Amino acid sequence: MRHKLATFAAAGSLVLVAACGRRNPIRPEAGDRSTFGAAHTFVITSMADRRLPAPGAEAATEDAGLDALPAPAGHIERELAGRRPGKRLPDPGQNPVVAWNRLTTALGLAAKLPPPMFARDYALVQVAIHDALVAAYDPRRDKLPDRVVAAGAASRVLAYLFPGDAGPIQTLAEAELTFVSAPAGHVRRAWGLGRSVGRLAVEHGTRDGSDAVFTGTPPSGEGIWTGTNPLLPMCGTWKTWLITSGSEFAPEPPYAFGSPQDLRDMQEVYEISLHRTPEQIAIVHKWADLPPPTIWNGVLNDRILGSGMSAREAARASAFLNATMTDAFIECWACKYKFWIARPFQRIPGLVTVIPTPNFPSYTSGHSSISAAAAAVMGELFPAEKRDFEAMAQEAALSRLWGGIHFRHDNDQGLAVGANIGELAVEVMRGRPALQVVAAR
To answer: Which pLDDT score, from 0 to 100, does residue 5 have?
Structure first.
């Protein structure tokens, strides 16, 4: 089933192959220590990973002492010592997973990251938080505070991703620790454990191939992309999280140049360009004004806050969403630079687009691929909204057609392959042992 492409009705309604109607897979883990400890992990093998500091010795690990905490040691000691037993500080009103996700968004937007790289960065941060909380749920670690564990992991990864932005990273870490009511020793240990898992996520990032340099020669010929300095041509070779590689799921080949199907797609793009409606133009901008990984993370963040998820529940949801979107980007980019198909404006003289065409080949559509993958994960997390997420993915795909920057075949095949990747992610979320792939391999 995992290699059977999803199909899409001619009217454009999205049909995902992932099953629906099952229980929310997040909720049962909220208070079940053994269940969360058995969860799928990404950069650690399990909560008992030998690379993790021993229970009770987390504060003794590298860069995990109080001198590495984001606030001065004396300040934290006074804050903790001055609290009466059982006294709780006001809740900051925001899930720590959402707080770190939003900081990642702000830093990534400021850096103008291309969408595949943005998805990669989201995944590294959210995977680090998730795996750190899995490790913290080891009963031998004596209930280390989630907020501090998350801060240690996320701040370590963000410092690697955005080395010039230490200020906002430290500011958020200080704010997060301000709302923690726990013994000083637990704070030290939680910070140390988070930093240790963050370090493993950074090690994954340094080995994921995202710094690979393209040394090939772009092809030439009829219907071939003719731009220069293409964006991230090696992305399709990056290390994946859940699928085995960027070539595990492949779309059907693009239409042959000049074939009836090819000419039909060209004509459709041209006709749409002559008759766009204000609503279509608004939808084009809706999906183009922010990177698609940011849009889907915003959708999840809203539901995390609206549903009252715990940090562990939110971490699992966000880790799977972002790992899945990253894998969908990797697959899509592998396809783009396998076929090097020309964009509509390169083939249709005088074509007017709503937005600038991105500087990489056309087939398949990145928005379509990652949105279908995201919709599958979101539908598993929030079954009552499954159809809404599917409709969002369809809208994202159509926005690229209406904008004049993709052909319909780009979108349809992107949706199909993205749905297949999302189906695999859902199977892993449901605990299918045969498909549990440990990314630390």
So the answer is: 42
Rounded distance between C-alpha atoms, residue 387 and residue 392, angstroms = 9
Q: For the chain, what are the domain ranges?
A: 42-82+92-206, 235-435
Using DSSP's 3-state secondary structure scheme, residue 8 falls into strand
Q: Which amino acid is at 73?
A: A
Whether pLDDT at 426 is above 90: yes
How many CB atoms lie under 10 A from the CB of residue 303?
16
Q: Which amino acid is it at 136?
A: A
Structure tokens at 270: 């041209």
The whole-angstrom separation of Cα 225 and Cα 243 is 28
> Phi-psi bin for 283: left (phi > 0), alpha (psi -120 to 50), beta?
alpha
d(CA 95, CA 315) in angstroms, rounded, equals: 10
Tell me how far apart the alpha carbons of residues 412 and 6 are, in angstroms, rounded to a whole number. 10
Asked whether residue 86 carries a pLDDT value surpassing 60, the answer given is no
Distance of CA 146 to the CA centre of its chain: 21
- Give mean pLDDT, residues 314-329: 98
Contact 431, 40 (CB under 8 A): yes
Residue among 104, 346, 363, 355 nearest 255 (CA) = 363
Nearest Cα residue to 334 out of 198, 259, 237, 252: 237
Classify domain 235-435 by CATH number.
Answer: 1.10.606.20
What's the DSSP call for residue 206? Answer: H
What is the C-alpha to C-alpha distance for residues 68 and 207, in angstroms, rounded to an integer? 25
Yes or no: say if 364 and 420 are a contact pair by the CB < 8 Å rule. Answer: no
Report field, pTM of the whole predicted structure over 0.70: yes
Of 378, 351, 370, 381, nearest to 419 by C-alpha is 370
Q: How confident is the model at residue 77 (pLDDT cuts 50, 70, 90)?
A: very low
**What is the distance, to the nearest Å, from the Cα of residue 162 to the centroid of all Cα atoms in its chain?**
17
Handedness of CA 393, 394, 395, 396 (dihedral sign): positive
- Name every residue whose Cβ is closer than 8 Å to that of residue 176 and which is 6 or more positions away in sequence: 92, 96, 99, 147, 148, 150, 151
